[in-house]
Design brief:
The complex is a heterodimer. Chain A contains 20 helices and 19 strands. Chain A is α/β, with parallel strands linked by helices. In chain B, 31% of the residues lie in helices and 21% in strands. The chains are: A alpha/beta, B alpha+beta.
Amino acid sequence: MAGLAAAFGSGAMTNSIGEFEDADLFFVIGSNTTAQHPLIGTRIINAVERGAKLLLFDPREIQLAPFASLHLRQNFGTDVALVNGMMNIIIQEDLYDRPYVESRTEGFDELKALVSRYTPKVVEQITGVRSADLYRAAVMYAQADKAMIVYAMGITQHVTGTDNVKTLANLAMLTGHVGRHSTGVNPLRGQNNVQGACDMGGLPGVFTGYQRVNDPASVQKFEKAWETTGLNTKPGLTITGMVEAAHSGSLKALYVMGENPLLSDPDLTHAEHALGNLDFLVVQDIFLTETAALADVILPAACFAEKDGTYTNTERRVQLSRKAVEPPGQARADWEIVSELLSRLGCCGTYPDTESIMREINALTPSYAGITYRRLASGYGLQWPCPNEEHPGTVFLHRDQFTKGKGTFLPCEFRPPAEAPDEEFDLTLTTGRIYYQFHTGTMSRRIEILEREAPQPVLEINPEDAKRYGIRTNDLVEVESRRGSIRLKAEVTTRVPRKVLFTTFHFAESPVNRLTTSAFDPVSEIPELKGCAVKIRRCS
Amino acid sequence: MKLIEKTKIKGVLAEWSKDFNVLCPSLTPNGDCLFDDFDPQTFTLEYRKPSMPQKRSCFPQAEKIFDVREGSFVPAYNHKKTVLFGIRACDHMGLRQSKSFFTRDIVDPFFGCRSEDTVIVVHACSWPQNETCFCTTVHSGPYATADFDIQLFDMGTDFLVEAGSDKGRRMISSSPFRDFDVDDAQERLERVKHMAFNSIPIVEEVAEAMDILKAGGANETVWEHLGRKCIACGGCVYVCPTCTCFTIHDRVTSKDSGERVRTWDTCLFEGFTKEASGHNPRPTQALRLKRRHEHKLLHYNPVDIQTALSGCVGCGRCSDSCPVHIGTLEVVKAITDHIY
């Protein structure tokens, strides 16, 4: 988000899901699309079947691989070098969109100077991608009429996550693949409302709609609306920052809503110690999670079917959801809990219903101004920006100019991952998700049929590595990093390349985040969950 | 034979609702058609093919089989006398086939008692509901020929009403149903049926594909091609009027009580055939798809399919809903196309 906001002025999927149908080329990098965004994945498959090209960059052989015109399995954590190399070829071969670059962007000379150092030979050394393949990829992307870049956590969960995103934005601007139908830079958001949570200011430094808490005009607007003064203008902490602060003792109390850091955070042993160090922990969730089990106060929350509200999905589409059943026991909707907490703390008035909250959002958030309950009640939602009640919503962003005016090239140098394999910890462990489980399994592990499909974590290991360690499929193995070790079953498969292991973070019985590193991206503070150095042995 | 003005239907359903749970087409705020409990506000006769078949009236998506309370067993038969109003002939054939399967040798008590207590009102189609309808190919429509209680034929402002059982005859015996006392009533009905039948094109590839399967099977590359793109969502199974596989779960509800529940399952999931050892006789998605389609087009029980051609009833919903176009229509075309 931070990367796209810096380059374009807006940190969201530029285009829409429906536009996948008309694209000529998909550049998919760091997204196991059919597993994690299956209906978007199927649109890619359908498009390929009608003649579109798929350029897939992924170390793993995911379900999309057989549909790819070109599948490149780059070394872990080398995306910046890879894409810089593509841009160098595109500039050298004069395949870039000169009029677009001249009229709509700034900073081209700096970009050109930086990427010129990423010759095919240099890139091959860093990424393991053969220069002929890199050339093909660059030409295919540059020459496509309508090309969409599609990425997910495989891009962002690196110490260079923001650089990865900026570099992809550079590539799209260089070739004029932003601001038109079926093009753009398209981060696929992982949950039904993660875009909405960001839009509503669920980030450390912003009010709703990314209005900064240190911008005097915004502060004044919110102070007036909330009939208060002296709003804190200092950005807060990210999750990574909170865990650090709890660990060092400067953070005393933590209120966790709908998140299970004791399974999802990197370096769990460290996170456990940090949370144990708190004076007061409140957890609000629909089930008793690993984190809730540690809490001083648990606030039982209503699930999606038990409350009214809206969700904003990956394509910026706000949709209304109505309560179907009453919440069980003492559970209450999140908004009711927070609203009552506010009133008991003596802050602002209470809200009678979710529509009154939406009215406040409309009044204070320019991009949501026209997204009212009245309009959401029929049809299938509205896509922001939607500045007034007559506005139809926005299918794709940056049509005639970027949100910030001119798009800015933000060239980045390649930086290696935080923890490269060495002699002792000689393999790279990368983590992800599978089709049948969701996140830390708080919900999906309670569904019997999903649990039947994926009852336990599996470690994918390449046949060559497996042979070296005497490991066969279904063997119990121990994987160890500098931070901890876990045991789980192995699956010997060519889905992963040599020297790379893969597993998922869904399973509390083998919590892979005991192993991961808490090294993080300096801008977004997203941890490098996609890779750490490990060693492996077969348990006897 | 009887007639009824369409505008009177709502009143009839309100009347029936006193004695029955009436399931009928309802419009959602977004204009989709669902079968739901009768509500005069949302009831509609302006509907095409509902996105789901009405199998859940006899075979709910999830149903409790029994409770365990303080160590004792309490069976859970939970059903009401039901009128299933306005179902299409293809879905009716699906229910007939499923009923045969569930009650042929050993009676499944849950499906059995529900279907015994259900009054079926078929709304015959006058034309295809959309481009994937192929009931005429598999002999399941556009109108029902047996095992219904009441059938409605569209005559403009009226429905022509046919009784298919004594129960049905009793239910339409009084006002606002009125006698259709013209000499050529039967001929008129036949004419309506004939026109409806001819409006739905025959898909030649279905019988052709069935012959190929009978003769030894389709080229394996057909299944491999389809298996590569199947995302195993199970949607085709959930929308299929004749898919009736279920699985059983035990749920603990408190310290000394629990319940056993059965829920819809699908043969497209890997775990459906996976054995305790970890061995899976259907190890690939290609083989799982092959199994499903052969079950419909080859390995059906001739008794269960009733008067239809196959275990597929031609509703076309799998073709409507599969995000990567692996419905029966696409599968039979792939089998007969020889393009792979």
